Batch of 4 targets.
Target 1
Amino acid sequence: MKGFGTLCVMLLGSLGVFAASGAATDEPPDFAADILPIFRARCYQCHDGRKSKSGLRLDVRASALRGGDSGHPAIAPGASGKSELIRRVTLTTGEEAMPPGTKKLTAGQIRLLRTWIDAGAPRPSV
């Protein structure tokens, strides 16, 4: 029975680490810690104040909500399924697939974006 007790302690300990990482909570991803790094690394080279390809800026909330030349909101708070950003980052080929090139977002990055958008896309106003 001693082995079973040790197993339980290890399991409970790992669950505590899992919960502490935010993965097992209902908290949305944090914009500054989780979303902004994705935008900076993969989106801002084309969609920020220096450059706004296709009329889209992701560094300004109002612009991201309005969307670019497509006429569709890049971010539809509470509805990732209606967000052009999610549609484009989940495409694997074609001109509309984002980011351009062969290095696409990871499944984990897309999951963070979806979860953040579905939670209302909370972020500081810029």
Target 2
Amino acid sequence: MRHSAVLKCAAFATMLTVAAAAAAAPLATAIRVSEPLGHANLAVYFIHGASKPGPVPLTLEEALAKGVVQLRETSNVNSLEIENLGEDPVFVQAGDVVKGGKQDRTLMVSLLLPPKSGRTPIASFCVEHGRWSQRGDEDAGKFSASTTSVPSREMKLAMQAPIAPAKPGASVAAIEETGLRQQKVWDGVQVTQHKLATSVGADVRAPKSASSLQLALESDRLVAARKAYVDALQAAAKDDDIVGYVFAINGKLNSGDVYSSNALFKKMWSKLLTASAVEAIGHRGEDESAAPSTKEVLAFLSNADAGPSSAKPLNFDVNRVTHASPAAYMFETAKADGWVHKNYVAR
């Protein structure tokens, strides 16, 4: 997969039933997985299936750009305040990076924010260890944009995967759990910056805030490197029945996202592809193997769906449901009337 190429474009006909854990009875949604499209060390598989009709929420990126969502600093590293001032629901995805405030953050949970939501707390992690003040002419009390998402499987797991206690039978206190996760996220930022710098042959850290993941992702050398990936794959997501994707790097399955509608997937696609490309860039030069088969992708999804589950209620009648299989986690954002988003992450 060293060259830009479409490996195959024929759809694989095997069907998979995906269960929605939001309700007592599963919502059976037949999907099929297309053969991989590849550029360099990145392979992308599109998930085709039925698309939920009806209005499509704004993404956080859209809502911040339009000024209909306010995301405010609370001076608590691990909690921000979000408010939807508009007339449309807003979808927030775990791993969205927000820029500004006293330090850049990534949001811990996926959430469907209703219109006129009022001020609501939302869990976050710092992705800029070295700043706790205004940066340039940015507003230290608010966050201005969300154009990127966390480009690291390890950081996704650090934010969402269950944490095992040090001793069997013990429990992890909430404050201890948050601290452990935050440290893993900081470590992930440093590892990501180092890998990217090695790959592109230049320091990606920004002089005005060397610890900022967001500013590192804006590095000119990195932007130029990821352009080839995006140019090769961006336009491929054209079919109206695509509801998600899975990607592999160097022949190893990494992560995937599936949405309840094609329209929401298409809104998220650019950010998803960019993050996947950045992660692939960080792994250039490592050992590669053949792209996984569609059967392997289906097994990755179905095994995660079938894993033991646990649910945690969030705001606005949204539940975060975690399924854990030996090979992968599935993190689901669900309401009583069905799921909105499923994130699959290899363990």
Target 3
Amino acid sequence: MADDTLPNLLHTYLEIGQHMGLSARQVEHLDKADPTFPTFKLGRIVCARRTSLDEWLRDREAQAKAEGRADA
């Protein structure tokens, strides 16, 4: 699933959203609503690592399955 030719570091909500299949606005909302969302700032620019986002998504999926949610 991981493409080693792509840079691991994503800059801006737009790039993060493109990686996750979400809009920049959805990512910004998620970032503000969930303190575990793996973003950080370089100066004024919000950034995230592809690997951290993928791991965060796997953890969220595992948590949903453990809670027995039907949509997981």
Target 4
Amino acid sequence: MQKQFDAIVIGGGPAGATSAAVLAQAGWNVAIIEQKEFPRRKVCGEFLSLTNWPVLEQLGLDRAVQTCAGPEVTHMAVFTGSRAIRAELPMAYGRPGHRGRALTRDVLDTLLMERSKALGATIIQPVKVRAVIRESDGFSCELESRETRETSRITSKIMIAANGSWEANPLGEAPKKAPRGSDLFGFKAHFRNAHLPDGLMPLLSFDDGYGGMVHCQDGLTSLSCCVTRKRLSQLRQQTDAGAGEQLLEHIRRTCPAIIPVLKDAVREGPWLSAGPLQTGIRPRYTPNVFYVGNAAAEAHPVIAEGISIAIQSGWMMASMLVPAKERLDDQLHIDSIGRAYSDAWSRAFSTRIRSSALIAHWAMRPWLVQLACPVFERWPRVLNWCAEMAGKASLSFQPRETLTKVAQ
């Protein structure tokens, strides 16, 4: 295996694979370090907003995603109590055939990883990063194979952190937070024969949690949700059923609008769970280390923008870093790109992150949601505006303009 790279990407999910693909496409010598073997399932809402089409087109993946993904999502809804209020999703960028769609993570992540490999990236998986050591001329990354336990060492000038927010960060462990009753845990399952109307993606509001549903590929319907640690502990004391089934019964009880949707549904595969979620904004750059995806920030899943922020932040960062290939030893230049990326990231994504927190805390209190229902019923445009604030209408950054500013 090659030992020296221009950049090493830790994490092969949407953010990491997109970053590596853009850099490899521009001639960079880049490696992706991933601890799991693909394909693999993950807790995720699995929705790809229409704002991702420019990135997918640039990477040559738009047709593959259209072929694999579920039907176009044209409408959103709020399910609270027995009420279901619908509104059309905004389409500022989209065009026929380019609405938002859902694609399971085992398929999406594999497509992105294979594309980055086809563009020239080196894929190293499944391996564990034992240590990242900062040296005078870059970084040394110590790896351990999860299959053979053999160790190896590779080096690079640039590190890109694209690891999940609840995974250990080999570039510096964040202070661990004490467990709180308000901590959120994520759950996901797939169902067949669900009666979810075509093109509809509802937000589920239930006591101490929220969720969403969407049609993904092969006739499956994805149900993903978050619930507080306190509520989850209470549910576990009530029955001997698994946590996922306990949570589903809680959703049926406190959000009965979902009952007709799941009347004939049959779960396919096990429930997946993860957490606690580490929502919020973190540093996007430290010297020669760029953070993308959940390593940079995590939005509450209530707005279904996690994959979009991951892909778009990876694309943004890599696009800005591409011209620096011949100046990797110029610390001032790399630092200027890091500052520019951090600023551009804030302009593009900070509103989504902060609005997701507000919407999440609102959605976890059904009585508040029900107070807003008369407004939504009379003025559905309010829901449309909320979707625009969450980033579902158009790209909030222009890579070419940002690159020009960096060059100047």
